[in-house]
Amino acid sequence: MSAGVPDRVGLARRRGRRIGLGCLAFSLGMLGAAYASVPLYDLFCQVTGYGGTTQRAAASPVGVSDRSIHVRFDSNASPGVPWRFQPTERQVQVKLGEVRQVTYRVRNDADHPVTAVATFNVTPLSAGAYFNKLYCFCFNEQTLQAGEEVEMPVVFFVDPALLEQEELKDAPTITLSYTFFPVDTPSAPVAQAPSDGGGSQDQL
């Protein structure tokens, strides 16, 4: 056997090791990207309103428009959440820029405490960028004791800039939907209404 053969064998082995390490690094990078994609996607949706994701506002709008819009409310609980969950009002009419508080009534029908968290979106999906929440039970996990019934508030406004969008200029009805999903480890108390009310609340 010539002296060049072992050299070629060693070179092939080193090349194989480099390829193997490269594949491992690529796999780990893809795994990390997969874990990072969820919060990055959530952040993207929150900023852009993509997929009907509503916005979280820190302050009330500057002005109120003369134009009004209807907002409907939808409620769902996944099979793992034995709660009766419904809005106290199915629909309200609000002026664009007006701060409004509505509530959802929730009852735990289980014989043990249940903790859940609500996901949310609005339709039309393009309205998500203009639907702003100042306060919402969906910001935190919620725990209800066996048989407990509470009212959970949402304080929101619809940005008047909505009318600047061609597909929304006719102020279509917006539907706000929530779905509760179970949480294994509770970390937050039941939502309570803001002390200052955060805006007017319609009487039922």
Describe this structure in words.
The protein is α/β, with parallel strands linked by helices and 204 residues long. It has two domains: 1-48; 55-201, Ctag/Cox11 (Pfam 04442). Helix content is 22%, strand content 35%. The protein contains one helix and eleven strands. It has one helix at residues 4-48, and strands at 55-56, 68-77, 83-87, 91-95, 100-108, 114-123, 131-136, 142-144, 149-158, 174-182, 200-201. Strands 1, 3, 5, 7, 9 and 11 form a six-stranded mixed β-sheet that branches. It has a five-stranded mixed β-sheet with strand order 4-2-10-6-8, with no helix packed on it. It is elongated, with a radius of gyration of 25 Å. The relative contact order is 0.20. The model is unreliable at 30-52 and 197-204 (pLDDT under 50).
Map the helices and strands.
Blueprint: H1 4-48, E1 55-56, E2 68-77, E3 83-87, E4 91-95, E5 100-108, E6 114-123, E7 131-136, E8 142-144, E9 149-158, E10 174-182, E11 200-201
Parallel strand pairs: 1-7, 2-10, 5-11
Antiparallel strand pairs: 2-4, 3-5, 5-9, 6-8, 6-10, 7-9
Can you give keywords for this protein?
2 domains; Ctag/Cox11 (Pfam 04442); 11 strands; 35% strand; 22% helix; 1 helix; 204 residues; alpha/beta
In brief, what are we looking at here?
The chain is α/β, with parallel strands linked by helices and 204 residues long. The protein contains 1 helix and 11 strands. The protein folds into 2 domains: 1-48; 55-201, Sandwich (Ctag/Cox11 (Pfam 04442)).
